[in-house]
Amino acid sequence: MLDALFVALSAVVPVFLVIGLGIWLRRQEVLPDNAGRVLGLYVLKIALPLLVLHLFAQARPEDLARGSFWLGLLLSQGLMFALVWSADRLAWRKGRREAIVAGMNCCVSNMAFVGLPIICNLFPANAEALLVAGLAILSPNLAIALIQARLDWLHGSANNSLRSFLRRVLLGNPLLLAALTGCILAGTGWGLWIPLDRTVSLLGYTAAPCMLLSLGLDLRTRVAMARQLGSGSIVARQSWLLTCKLFIHPLLCWLLLYLFGVEGLWLTVSVLLSATGAALVNALMAEVYDAGPAEVALSVVLSNGLSMFTVTAFIWIFLYLGMV
Fold first, then answer.
1. Rounded-to-10 torsion of CA 178, 184, 185, 186
2. Quick check: 276 pLDDT over 90?
3. Mean pLDDT score across all residues of the chain
4. What's the rounded mean pLDDT across residues 192-201?
5. Domain ranges across the chain
6. Which of 8, 133, 160, 223 is exposed most, by the fewest CB atoms within 10 A?
């Protein structure tokens, strides 16, 4: 019990330490006021696409061809997005951009920066577990790419034709272009030229600290804005979002993978990664596209803090069932 709690804490605490550094930097006025937004744009347009390219290019063709695994994982994310988006539009009366980002916030998990360290500590030196984690980390990027294209369409030009939308998706979306390029490199077995791959990975792995710093730099402002929304409504709203992200999503992932015949580490690792909090990039999306940034930032912080308890709970369950 204590070991599982320590694993979760050791993965989550560093995240909050970097966020705390961002808060301190803002308080000391070390960086300009727009530093958070600039860092967010850098992550969305440069660092994160390069990280996606690096990860996809290293995958093997047979790993990418596990249909039941991909179907269960992606379908759980799609159904989670549809549930939250529908509730936002019908029950919470949110706008289109706010509903899209809320749906994204409940289906795109913090797999890379919280989930992967947990898997590494839980399954040390287990190549299969790391393989599953590496592939699962790729799945949210597909959702992010499509969601970003839709937000660009809503946020951008007056030309909202199908041709314009497809142009944005295929040519104007760095994440999707990086994923497609990585799939081609993995499928052909070419990979990236080693010096180029090292350059890409060097830039790509700056996404994590930049996301955390960006969140910390603007956190006090966002939380203050969120608290002004009204104490009663914000409590109910956050309770709904956190329930969807931390409980419904991993349980839905578990159910779908089980129904599709996925078992063993492929199921266990996927569920544990889905049980992590909302991805930090969600807060950046909300900031860049002005889609309820205060609310989303608060949800990201709360979900990642509480995820150490939900991930620990799922670890206990898997231990009890003999799956770990």
1. 110
2. yes
3. 84
4. 92
5. 2-33+66-176+213-320
6. 160
